[in-house]
From TrEMBL:
Compartments, as annotated in UniProt: Secreted
UniProt keyword annotation of Transmembrane present: no
SMART domains the UniProt entry points to: OLF
GO cellular component: extracellular space
Protein name, as recorded: Olfactomedin-4-like
Record lineage: Eukaryota, Metazoa, Chordata, Craniata, Vertebrata
Claim: Secreted is one of the keywords in the record: yes
Keywords: Secreted
């Protein structure tokens, strides 16, 4: 109801009160018909008159005076009380109706906006169901389920063939039994199909157990998995100071080599570098004397420059990730020659860096070395970002073996190889890391229940 309705109501009541006090009517043939001139809308007049005439329905006799053909009388309309309360009730009802109408109009507008979206959703569902209706009409559901289970059996057979030798015979026999059940599944009902699925689930769980590193693990150079790490043996501030906080350092990794220490700082946003600083002995390294700087590239932006902190000195050569690519570089310290080799499908430029709470930039490709040789740690799109470990020929960078783990590379802070076993660390605090994962390259088994703490320094 418009805001002016209330004011019009009071104006109308005042006018009617004035008319009812002093108004005299003259009537001839139709004394019940009269008109009143009041400035109101037609709806208001009809409502008001309907209420007013209802009150006039009672009869009142008035004495008149006949003059000629006419009868004149004085009528005091105050005898009838105007139905103010009823009028207000009707006005309130009109208010409620208009408010309800506004709400309904708003809902209709919202529904009109949602109708196109609903139509698109229904259309998409119809398109998706059309293919299933085709399968249902030709009774192909059952065959598709069997085909999927058959594929799972094939994958299990491949996995079992690489599982532990002591369990291989038993698992192979059980797989043969399940495959025989699959051949007869078309003659059985759906409940038997569920039984086959349960058997497959049990076999998968047993296969996972076979993949776990045994508690009595031994290898050619170790009697068990890593169980303890001492406090840091070498603690030293970088000779470059805090200007270059990122890079790599260490001792030459091959045991037959001389005791030579090196530092490789990263510049240009802690990303690139081209210079290594060498120290002939541990004493020289600790006292920062007798250093020698060697450039592996003319500048840090050269195509053969270093990217990331994954650099390693191994057997008279520097191994590192080539500038702005997923390729490997080998710089020979004797011949000054650089060899480049592509690392297939490897992520780079922060595609798969080490992370945990925050990511360590430019750590996509990381070199490591142990008693058995040279390794590179990375991740690929094909592995869905899980760590891939490859053993390299240190002379020409050819890949000799590759293992794909089930550990997501961005979930670890670092990784290294010891005695053919890949270890991964995670963040504990600003001063402590934890070795929590191991992957044995000899058996392909893994263990993610390690809890070996490792102290670290933070400036």
């Amino acid at each position: 109801m418009p805001r002016s309705m209330r004011s019009l109501l009071h104006q109308t009541l005042d006018k009617f009160h004035y008319l009812m006090v002093d108004w005299a009517c003259t009537y001839k043939a139709s004394p019940s018909v009269f008109s009143i001139s009041v400035s109101m809308s037609s709806v208001q007049i009809v409502t008001l008159l309907s209420l007013f005439l209802t009150e006039l329905s009672s009869t009142l006799n008035v004495q008149g005076v006949k003059q000629g053909d006419s009868c004149f009388c004085d009528v005091n309309l105050t005898a009838w009380q105007f139905p103010v309360r009823q009028y207000e009730d009707v006005a309130n009802l009109v208010d409620s109706c208009e408010e309800l109408q506004g709400m309904l109009q708003t809902q209709v507008q919202l529904l009109e906006k949602k109708i196109p979206q609903i139509e698109r959703t229904v259309g998409n569902m119809t398109d998706r169901l059309r293919a299933f209706q085709y399968l249902k009409s030709r009774s192909l559901y059952y065959d598709l389920q069997l085909h999927q289970m058959d594929k799972e059996l094939e994958r299990l057979e491949v996995d079992v063939s690489t599982a532990h030798q002591t369990a291989q015979g038993t698992l192979s026999q059980e797989l043969s039994s399940v495959r025989e059940m699959m051949k007869n599944a078309k003659d059985h009902n759906k409940f038997n199909l569920e039984t086959v699925r349960d058997n497959l689930r049990v076999l998968k769980n047993r296969l996972e157990t076979c993949r776990t590193i045994d508690a009595k693990f031994t290898s050619n150079c170790s009697q068990r998995l890593l169980s303890n790490i001492s406090e840091p043996v070498v603690t030293k501030l970088s000779p470059y100071g805090k200007s270059y906080p990122s890079g790599s350092w260490g001792r030459e990794a091959k045991s037959s080599a001389m005791e030579r220490y090196w530092i490789q700082p990263l510049v240009s946003g802690n990303r690139h570098g081209n210079v290594l600083r060498f120290y002939p002995t541990h004493e020289d390294f600790m006292s920062s004397r007798g250093e020698q700087d060697i450039a592996v590239a003319p500048s840090y932006s050269h195509t053969n420059a270093i990217q990331g902190p994954g650099t390693l000195l191994y057997d008279e050569a520097v191994f590192y990730q080539c500038y702005n690519t997923g390729e490997l570089c080998r710089y020979d310290l004797s011949t000054k020659a650089t060899i480049r080799k592509s690392l297939p499908d490897a992520g780079f430029n922060n595609r798969f860096p080490y992370c945990y709470y925050t990511c360590h930039d430019w750590t996509d490709i990381d070199f490591s070395a142990d008693e058995t040789g040279l390794w590179v740690i990375y991740a690929t799109e094909a592995s869905h970002g899980n760590i891939v470990l490859s053993r390299l020929d240190s002379d020409n960078l050819n890949i000799t073996h590759t293992w794909t783990t089930r550990l997501f590379k961005k979930s670890v802070t670092n990784a290294f190889v010891v005695c053919g076993v890949l270890y991964a660390t995670r963040y504990l605090s600003a001063y402590e890391e934890e070795v929590f994962y191991a992957f044995d390259t000899n058996t392909g088994k893994e263990n993610n229940m390690l809890a070996v703490k490792m102290e670290k320094f933070k400036i």
